[in-house]
Request: fold
Amino acid sequence: MKQDFWKMTVLAIGALIASSTLTQAQQNCAARDTVIERLASAYGETRQSIGLAQNNTMVEVFASSDSGTWTITVTNATGLTCLVASGQAFENLAETLPTPAEDA
Reply:
């Protein structure tokens, strides 16, 4: 799960950098409480993971185990939350690190 979270985080940060020239209105942003309520009521999504990114931004992954939908959000220090990516077929994984090969 941590490995997948970081992959998704890298994608989210890349998307933010790529869209940095877009205006705020084009980025699907709103107050954090509004976004969380909308994800819960419209899609049944709850927070699955959280992490800190550059400039004290908070990256969160929301998902629904019932519908399989998922959303990645980024929230800045002022509480403005932007939708970065979303999709379907979310799976919650609990993978472990591979065991290093022992010397022969």
